[in-house]
Each structure stands twice: as C-alpha cells, then as structure tokens.
Amino acid sequence: xxxKHLHQPLISLRNITRDVKIDSKxxxxxxxxxxxxxxxxxxxxxxxxxxxxxxxxxFLDCAAGVSKPQKGHVSIQxxxxxxxxxxxxxxxSLSGRQNARLLxxxxxxxxxxxxxxxxxxxxxxxxxxxxEKPLKSYDKEMRARFYLAVSLIFDFDVYxxxxxxxxxxxxxxxxxxxLQKALKDRTFGKSVxxxxxDFRFVEQFCDEGLVLDQGSIAYSGSFSECRAxxxxxxxxxxxxxxxxxxxxxxxxxxTELNSDNLDDxxx
Length: 267
What we know:
By secondary structure, the protein is an alpha/beta fold.
C-alpha cells in the first residue's frame, strides 16, 4: 500500500551515492550507498535494518547532513539532530561543563542553561569532579555517556539514532534505564531515523522500517514486515563491519572507518 503525504518531506535523498575509504595508503574505497532515493515525513519513525552497519551509518549520516554524498542531493527542511551519541562539535581540550555550555548556547534556551547543565551532568553519570575536567581525560565509557547526555538535552524535529549509542533491550542497569527513559521522552511525538543490530530495541521507537542491502533499499514497510523480510532474505550472520562506525569528521569525499566502538559495559 502506498501512503500519500500532504506535506513536503523533512529529509529527501535523491540519487545518493556514498563511498568510504577502506585503505588510506592505496586509496581503495567501498561503495556503501548507490543511486538511493528516500524521503522522511513528519511523524515517521523509521528503523533501518542492514547486514552492514557501514551502510546503515552512511545512510543516517547523509540523512542528518553530517556527511556529503559523492553523487546526488540531500534536502533537509527541518531541524535535524546530529547522530545521537556522536562527538559532533565537542572539543577534547574543554571540560564537560564548557562543552555543554557551548552547545547549550547554540541549541538551547538561555533561561534553561543551569537546568540543562544539571541534567547533562546527571544523565552522563560522570565520576566525581569530572564535569570540570577536559574530555580528553575521560575514559571511553564516560565519553560515550557524556556524548549521549548532551544529545538528549535539545529539541529537534528529527532524531537520528545510530548503533553506537550502545543501548540494548536486555540491559536492566540503572544507568541504562535512566538514559533509555530520557531517549523515549525526548523523541516522543517526533520523527525518528534509527539503526541498531538489536531489533527489539528499535521496535520500542519505530513503527516503520526499511532494509538496506548492497547499498540499495531492498524492502520497506512496517517495521515488523521489514524484520520478517530481513530474517527471511538476508543472512543472519553479521558482516565483519557490524561494530564499525563512520567518522563524519573525516574528509567528506571518502570517510575512514573507526573501529573504536562501544559496548554494553559502560551502562
């Protein structure tokens, strides 16, 4: 069944082709997206299923506007988040508080400065005194929680949620439950574009889906339909890149892969 939309799309991808560098010395590249067309409308909550997390993250990065495709055009007619939990525009030499104040000044409201800073510190659950220390002194787990906490403070029309936030459906730790609730509260009633290898987690946020395969959209529909199609038609064995991320701060024409992924132990 084709759904007709009365309004213009919030995000539109037209004939997108996206490559990533896989060998910086020899200049070899891998094609992650090819001639891809897609639109996101107000209120849609779409989960992206893919055997390759490289492809899924390339799709999310292009949709969020943080990576430019080699070919094609991306149109964004909304206030779209950066991929939640990403480093984004944070500076490792500045303290957690200084970074939080910087982003709050750009995306937040002046009257909420102190309450936003307090909430970021509480959600990040940093060790005592670390909110005043530079990010480069944080361990990987603290950095990950801080990046996600900062992302959850601001109000966007569309929330882009990648795999590397490392939240899982079977985690019952207090830190996880607090961040999961904050994520649900912040994205309630908003458009969502999300990927995660834990499909049960995605189901908590998305009622629609699409399946990426070999750089193209192979199937789309309800999330339950997409999951069934994926499990029937695509191998369950993950590719080697399942935990790799696209680092959007690299050169936009060919993005290096970053294997410094996150795990559940931080929660």
